[in-house]
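User: ok so my PI wants both of these folded by tonight, can you help

Assistant: No problem, let's get them done. Here's the first:
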Amino acid sequence: QREDVDIVIGKSIRHFPLWERKSDYMPALETNRKITTPELFDKYYVSFFGINIFPVQAWAKLYKASLIAEAAQQVPLFEKDIVMGEDEHFIMQLFPYTTSFYASDLYVYKYRYGGMTSYYNPRLGELFHFGDKRLPLLDRYQYEKGYQPLFIEYKNVLRDYIAQQIAYK
């Protein structure tokens, strides 16, 4: 409320089964500063295409209700066919309607870690489908700088998918 922003982002602690780690998932993101358009979109939207500047997960954030309501009238914020990356899809659809955010240096969320990064995940291949959902957004917003990192992300998902198939099949 003090900063009058659409999204507030906080830091998180990742809890692994045997240990905890304070997460610095926003090292390139300036903290304790209000970021507004056009810098917000120009500099940070690329995060949804493989460049990790803005944290793309839905957790550790506060959202202005009016932002969600406005975006939901324009685009589908949730799609039933997206299982892998559903939180990133939500933020990616919401982001073009965001006019400001504030990144706090406070730890506000404890994330219990596991899933696809730790074990075999039979849904890993679904990330290819999620990538296909991002291509039209690059065209819609004429966001040319997103193509190269998205291609690299496709290659990384393919590499991980093949490695997982070899290791677990």
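One down. Here's the second:
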Amino acid sequence: MKKLLLLVVSTVVCIFPQNFMYEGTIGNFNSASAVSISPLGFIYVSDSGTDEVLKLDTLGNLLKNIGGYGWSTSQFDEPTDVFAAPLNIYTADKNNHRVQILDKDLNYISSVATRNNDIQETSFGYPVSCAVSNQGDLFILDSENNRVIKFDVLGKFSQNFGGFDAGIFALENPVKLSVSGAGNVFILDNHDILKIFDSFGNGMMNIKLENRFNDIDILFNYITLTSNDFILLAKIGNEKLEFHKLNLTGDYQSTEFISSVFYNNKLYVLTTSCLMIFVKE
């Protein structure tokens, strides 16, 4: 029998400083939708306003951008998510019903698209998020069917989970997914519930959040939850997730947060127009 853990998340005293000082802003976007930082430190941003994916360095230099509206390779129709693995970049190309796979320099490699397949269990449409585990498994958040589709490292369909038959772990309005180093899949559902599955699609936890959030992101051992105006941070690995509300200080323009990533003791906060950087004090 699966055990349901319903946990109300609250902020607690952090074991490391909670204050993050504003350092500056990089990037110039039209309507950014997601950000991901590769283990090598390159920054990738999907911009749904221009239907592009951009690659920047940590100084904000634009190294390359690809895209524009369309359905050909390296074109997008509302890219909603980007995920940076060590060698490849994965983009959820929502209205084209596919995930495009690029190399680290944004050269096109291949696409994953199954909506026109006759086999319903493999089909996904309007993907809103994607991520790859350390084992190379690709997880796609299928918003058309409210479930996750998993492909193995060879690109072969493995399973789907979180659908209407998942009981208490059925997804209602999935927003974003992220995968931990251990292979567990964290899904932000309906903006206020965090659902956690193991790498085989078995439900592990339902966590009721006290606020509504736009995004969840995991990099290395840290997980961020991003709301419109504040960010929670937790370290993965403990039996209990303890989220800490971060105190963002300094002279920065208040605006709606879209996403965030904690990398190398810095917090990168994405807005629709730029990427703000905060340094741990």
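The radius of gyration is 18 Å. The first strand starts at residue 6 and ends at 8. Good luck tonight!
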